[in-house]
Amino acid sequence: MLVWIVFAAVGLLALFFRNPHFFRDVQFVRKKLKTRSRILKYMQTNYSILDRFIDAEKEHPHKPFILFGDETFTYRDAEELSNKAARVFLQSGLLKQGDTVALFLGNEPVFLWLWLGLVKIGCSAAFLNCNIRSKSLLHCFKCSGARTLVAAEELQDAVDEVLPALLEQQVTVFILTNRCQTADVKSFKDQMSHASSEPLSKDLRSHLTLRSPAAYIYTSGTTGFPKAAAISHAKLWQVACFLSLAGMNSDDVLYISLPLYHTTGFLGFASAIDRGITVALRSKFSVSQFWNDCRKYDVTVIQYIGEIMRYLCNTPKKPNDRSHKVRLAVGNGIRADVWRDFISRFGNVKIGEFYGATEGNFGLINYSGKIGAVGRDSFLYRRYFPHAVIRFDVETETPLRDSSGLCIEAAKGEPGLLVSEISLMAPFSGYMGDLQQSEKKRLHDVLRKGDLYFNTGDLLRIEEDNFIYFQDRVGDTFRWKGENVATTEVADVITMVDCIKEANVYGVEVPGHEGRAGMAAINLTEGLRFDSAAVFKHVENFLPAYARPRFLRIQSSLDVTGTFKHLKMKLVAEGFNPNQITDPLYFLDEKDKSYVPLTVDKLNLITSGQIKM
């Protein structure tokens, strides 16, 4: 027996010296497997995040749950307010078990009361991005399958714009106000204030299983309008456990300034329930108030996207930069140089950079602290959570296959398409009401005949030391200001302007910024001149700020493939440099409320950071 122990020890030491991260790799896979086992147990008993919340309220009813401005809401407050919200829906007589309600509001506590209340009566919610308007708003509402819309008071103008279309579809509209002056729109808060706060019968949600939808969260995907990704109660548990895997514990205070309608923001809320902790919620990220909030609320864990970290690093240095209790930052998209600057300036904060997708069935997290990486590739992780990085043709946007029809794994250091196996343990639920786009995300015969994998739509690379790095996004989507921008949607909007005949939208890199800024190559309508002020006004009215093209390039004709698909690669590579491009170039100038000529001087101001993007 002793001999075998010695051999095992020698074997482990050999593995360690070949791979110094071996024990961390094993430890992380063990944590993931324990999480999986826990969720499987919950699936057998249909124990949901809501059930965990109810238990947490019983365990510590007077513990602060949500800190918002100068308001404090305990777990008991949240329980009672969500009961009231649930009763408003019940008393309206509009909902039946399994229905979906669309929520159109930003970060405020009532967002959480509404979602909890809906699940208590066996329903789900679709989280609408509060920046969308007009055609996009109608599209997102329609594909949610909802017949009821609840909107924030400050978004009533956006609702009024589409109200005729909603009423035509016999949609019931609530505004979160005590009194509403608009005909055919109901007020919600006054009804909520008069509703009972008594607990609701569990029978109202007895039909729910952990495979039932808990919410629909929108993603731009790779083409077209935003798509509603179904988030089951089981998937919500996976999301909720994520921050624990990153190192958050039951003593922490979590700061959420990211939108709750996004997976990242809602991830924080669900994780807080899982750990039974306090959340400091902010209506919107503020670079000037970020650290003040962290000090005010004794925050220990923050969530980020890359832009947030860059904004914080770009603020003037202060003597109290390290006067805070933050020990862990979890998010994605941070550049390596910003990562270094952040910990150098703000102290020894552990960065939990991760990779994941709203609709995806797979995730990575950098548990070893390697700057710039999103995770590690190990034999054990592939064994229990099958995935691969495969060779990919970025021009045709298709995986490369060998003579037998199977995909080819990318070599070390070679960017490739990340794919993850679809199985009972890692399902892909697809997009609500969009079978075609759902099927596009499924790849057949990847590593063996008959297998099925999820196409993440992202290019990653695995280096020789097995650290994994995010490379780029595939297809007609780029990321700017923490939001996915669908190029086809932007093109549809800007070609509504009379002077623009055709548009090819793409993302370009801007020095000092994460993601890509929007740029459009346009072809003018015959006989019409470019009306810069009119184009600016149009994109301001119909596109959220993050989706507005920052640069325009006027061309006599747009290059297309044999199948009439716009060619983007060359345009992306050429960027927006007037020294190298002879076509007229314009820049979105918010100060002048117009698209102004992009001169060499203005280019220098942009690349040096003197003109804010």
TrEMBL record:
One of its GO terms (molecular function) is long-chain fatty acid-CoA ligase activity. Its EC number is 6.2.1.3. Residues 489-565 form the AMP-binding enzyme C-terminal domain. Keywords: Cell membrane, Fatty acid metabolism, Ligase, Lipid metabolism, Lipid transport, Membrane, Nucleotide-binding, Transmembrane, Transmembrane helix, Transport. This is long-chain-fatty-acid--CoA ligase. Belongs to the ATP-dependent AMP-binding enzyme family. It is a multi-pass membrane protein. One of its GO terms (cellular component) is plasma membrane. It catalyses: a long-chain fatty acid + ATP + CoA = a long-chain fatty acyl-CoA + AMP + diphosphate; tetracosanoate + ATP + CoA = tetracosanoyl-CoA + AMP + diphosphate; a very long-chain fatty acid + ATP + CoA = a very long-chain fatty acyl-CoA + AMP + diphosphate. It is found in: Cell membrane. Residues 57-365 form the AMP-dependent synthetase/ligase domain. InterPro entries: AMP-bd_C, AMP-bd_C_sf, AMP-binding_CS, AMP-dep_synth/lig_dom, ANL_N_sf. The lineage of its organism: Eukaryota, Metazoa, Chordata, Craniata, Vertebrata. One of its GO terms (biological process) is lipid transport.
